[in-house]
Amino acid sequence: MRRNLKKPVALLTAALTAASLLAGCGDSSEEGAGADAGTQVNETDTAGAAAETPADSAETVETAGAEAGTYPLAEGGTLTYWLQLNPNVSANFTNLGDTELGKAWQEQTGVTIQFQHPAAGQEKEQFNLIVADGSLPDIMEWQWVKNYPGGPEKAIKDGVIIPLNDIFKEYCPNITKYLAENPDIDKMIKTDDGNYFAFPFIRGEDKLCYTVGGFVRQDWLEELGMEVPATVDEWHDVLTAFKEEKGAEAPLCFDWTNFKDSNPIAFAFKVGTANGTQFILDDQGKVAFAPAQEGYKDYLMTLNQWYNEGLLDRDIATLNGDQVTAKMTSGKAGTSVGWAASRMQLFMTSAQQSDPGYELVATPTPTTEKGAVPEYGYVENQFPDVSAAITTSCKNVELAAKFLDYGYSEAGHNMFNFGIEGVSYEMKNGKAEYSDIVINNPDGWPLAQSLAKYIRANYNGPFVQDLNYLEQYLQLPAVKECPSVWAVPDARKHTVPNITPTQEESKELATITNELGTYVSEMSLKFIFGTESFDNWDKYIETLQGMKLDRALEIENAALERYNAR
Description:
Layout: E1 2-5, H1 9-22, E2 39-42, H2 49-52, H3 54-57, E3 78-82, H4 87-90, H5 100-109, E4 112-116, H6 123-133, E5 139-143, H7 151-157, H8 165-171, H9 173-181, H10 183-188, E6 199-200, E7 202-203, E8 212-217, H11 218-224, H12 232-246, H13 256-259, H14 264-268, E9 279-281, E10 287-289, H15 294-308, H16 321-330, E11 335-339, H17 340-351, E12 360-363, E13 386-390, H18 397-405, H19 410-418, E14 425-428, E15 431-434, H20 436-439, H21 447-452, E16 464-465, H22 467-473, H23 477-480, H24 482-486, H25 503-529, H26 537-546, H27 549-564
Keywords: Lipoprotein, Signal
Protein name: Lipoprotein LipO
Organism: Eisenbergiella tayi
């Protein structure tokens, strides 16, 4: 039985409360927006869904009535879909529906989509307004785990989005099959109460999660007769040689704002982090605060030594990406940290226009001892939290579910990852290969923008990202090696998954971590620049404790226990 549910005033009140709390959250986000009240759900009251379906939701979803659908959908219809417009899209388009991907998505599913996008830089504010006034869209892309206080379960209880357990069973054979075959992923997209909450973006293979690392001037190493550094001491030797023999004024150059916690040296001392957090999992599997570890002191002492010796860029605190690019492509710097494509590949293609011999090579995560195996390293979560939820305002949940499930079909997978066959890609030897119109854009667009005209694989969406996309996006041989070189097999053991504190915990945790983060950022630079003595390290730790660090760890570990029990 299906019924049309009117969203009660109580839900709007809850939504207003949630929206007021969201204003305090500080992560970057992906979003969605706009229809009116009322929804159709399969025998599920959206306001109390978590309480009504616990036994069912605690299990991995199994297909009940769903069978592989036929696309385009005969019933058709129109849906509203609010999401952030990726910068690689907005560089040339004002609406996702104007891209070839947007057109193909609608044509192949038979569903008309009214895409709506918040203004760049105002995503959270507009999300708050949408939730507060109740003008929810049919579909909403957002970081429900990180950017909704209390996480997706609270969003369900607030009447913002609907649980999808019954929806998956009845209408979504493609994602159901994928989750049954990938229980680790299945765990990631459930709430602590066992409710599925959205159609996720998933990195299909581990190699897609190793996107950041160090790289060094290979041509300089060869000229100097040196090997790629594999230990902290070898890094020091290379940087010294670059300064003394090559005249590099900033041998190690990277933007501290982006990579202060995710650079190779931090990981060498077992205090590096990824996914926008400063929390790690220690050797016992408990959440720990990286800047409070003894290894963090060793990390800062190393950078302080390098700063004093002129090996670390003296402007590191204020550098931006453009400035790093300028120094790395002009010979002023010889090593850096960043993304494989948008940094390392960019540096090589830019510099080689005037210096054909310019070469970079990826550096493995270093260790502090020769011959040791790295334990910590940069690795992103396979589910990075961007996901498309169906809201309580959706009047045709069946249509929305079938539309979103398309991304997990073979045809949808190819569309999101490669675009339109015969236009943006061709099948060769059983593999999709991007066409010349993408690789060599006739309008001179950068590759990332050219890809974004036809696909979403170079950012996110409701589908599983294909490794074949990355292997073609990374065009230069040296850059193609990055994921393999940067991979640390044990890194995920020390990476905190997408845990969800309760609403009350989220509010308290945000207050504590904001204060901790500000203090750590300030003191880290003081220690590096020598304006704060390491004799005051114990005082630094005491200050962290006074900022309720122990309470933050208590909240994080409680959330981790709930996650592990899913």
